[in-house]
Design goal:
about 325 residues; alpha/beta; D-Maltodextrin-Binding Protein, domain 2; 6-stranded mixed sheet; 5-stranded mixed sheet; 11 strands; globular
Length: about 325
Amino acid sequence: MGDIRLTLACGDYDLTRALIDGSVQPAGIDLTVLAMPSPERHWRMMRYEEFDVAELSMSHYLVAHARRRGFSAIPVFPHRRFRHSFVFCRADAGIEQPADLSGKRIALRTFQNTAGVWTRGILADDYGLDIKTVHWSTQDEEETPWDPPEWLRIDRVPAGANLDRMLLDGEIDAAIYPETLPSFARGDPRVKRLFERPKEVERDYFQRTGIFPIMHTVVVRNRVLEQFPWVAISMLRAFRESKQRCYDRLADPRQTALAWVQDLVEEQRAVLGADPWPYALEPNLAALSALIRYSHTQGLIPEAPAVNDLFVESALSESPRYVS
C-alpha cells in the first residue's frame, strides 16, 4: 500500500520551509503543501474545512473546538509573536499609558483574531484595561459567525472603511493590529505605538510569565485521523524535523542575510532558551492556559476546556527532541 495523499496549508516561514520545499517528508504521506497567508488559510479552513492538515489561528481553533468542528489539533505551534508592539494610538488621543485605553474607541481586524485576544488579555491582566468600557470596532467579517455577549460594546466599521485611515482621521483612538500598521510604518506623526520601547516590555513580560504568545496551531481533519490515526504523529515529527532544520540554518551565518545573526541568535537563546518554539504540551501550558482564559472571559467560548482535551491524545505522548 502506497503513501496516502494529503494537503497541508501553512504559512511560508523558516520553520516550515523544509516541508514546503519537500526536503522533509512525513512518513507514509504524499504531502501537497499549499503555502498561503493567514487570513485566506484561516477563512478557508474555518468556513469550509478545506484542507486535510492546516496551520490555524489558535483562537479560531478554540472557537472551533467548542463547536465540535471536524478537525483536531496536534501540539505544533509554528507562529508566535509578542503583541505589545502592535497597539497603535493617535498621538493626540490622550493615551499615554495602557490604562488610558479604557473608554476609548479601538478597532481591530476581527475580534476573534488571536492577536487581539492576546492583546486584550495582556492589557487587562497587566495594566488594568477594562474591556467592557471600550467601544470596539472590527474591520472584517469574523471567520466564524458569532453572537457577542451583551456586555461587549462592538460594531463593524462602515462598509469599505479602513481602520488605519479611520485612526488617521480621528474616527477611532487606537488600533490593535496583527502586523505593523501601515501609517506607522510610513512614519506618519499622527500615529504612535502605545509602548514606546516594546522590546523591553515584551522581554519583561516573558521573564515574568514564561509566555511567548502562541498565535497558531496545526489541525488535522477528524475523518483523516479516524481512518489513519498514525497521521497525527507522522505530521508532528515532520514539523519538528522542519523546525530543527531551521535552527541548523540559523546556526550557520552563511545561510542568513543578517550581518549580526549570531549575536541575535545568542541573545534569543539567552532570553528565551534553546528551543523557543517547543512542539509539545508541557512547555506550552502557561501560554495555552492564558489564551483559554482570555477566550472565555472575552466571550468567545462558552466554557474553558482542559488543555489536554484540545489535542490528539496520541500526539501528546510523543516525546520531543529538544535542541541542545
